[in-house]
Design goal:
Number of strands: 8
Structural class: alpha+beta
Largest sheet: 4 strands, antiparallel
CATH topology of the largest domain: Rossmann fold
Strand content: 25-35%
Shape: elongated
């Protein structure tokens, strides 16, 4: 079986609280003969910036995908607000307040910028997609990010 590179997990900066809001305990992930993660423990503290560092192929993206419901662990548990959780999908994770912005963005080239931003979480009014609100919110976010992109 392939051996996962060593990864340094959980270097934190900034401090507002020692409260652990989410934990990964003993997380392992195996793809065929490749062991992507081996018994990883990782904590996210409320009000702290948490840095995840490691070499290419160390399993950083795999861990984040597991913690956000994109992938399922081969072994181990996730704990959210002190309770063990299982996210069967990213939608289930978002429903519990867990979401990430993936390093590898998979955009839909046939959609507009605002449609990509709200893909899977469209704003609706009276059962109809509220295009005007989605465009306005997209413009606000893009301005805050200082990105001169037209969301239409």
């Amino acid at each position: 079986m392939g051996k996962a590179p060593k990864t340094r997990l959980g270097a934190e900066a900034g401090s507002l609280s020692d409260e652990v809001v989410m934990s990964a305990r003993g997380i392992s992930k195996i793809y065929g003969a490749t062991r992507a993660l081996r018994s990883v423990d990782f904590d996210i503290h409320r009000g702290k910036v948490t840095v995840l560092l490691g070499e290419n192929g160390a399993g950083k993206s795999t861990l984040m995908k597991i913690m956000s419901g994109v992938e399922q662990p081969t072994a181990g548990t996730l704990i959210l607000d002190g309770q063990e959780v299982t996210f069967g999908s990213p939608t289930a994770a978002v429903a519990r307040g867990v979401a990430i912005i993936h390093q590898e963005l998979n955009l839909c080239p046939n959609l507009t910028v605002y449609e990509n931003i709200f893909l899977g979480r469209e704003i609706t009014t009276a059962g109809q997609v509220d295009k005007r609100t989605q465009i306005a919110r997209s413009e606000t976010v893009l301005q805050r990010l200082e990105e001169p992109i037209n969301p239409r």
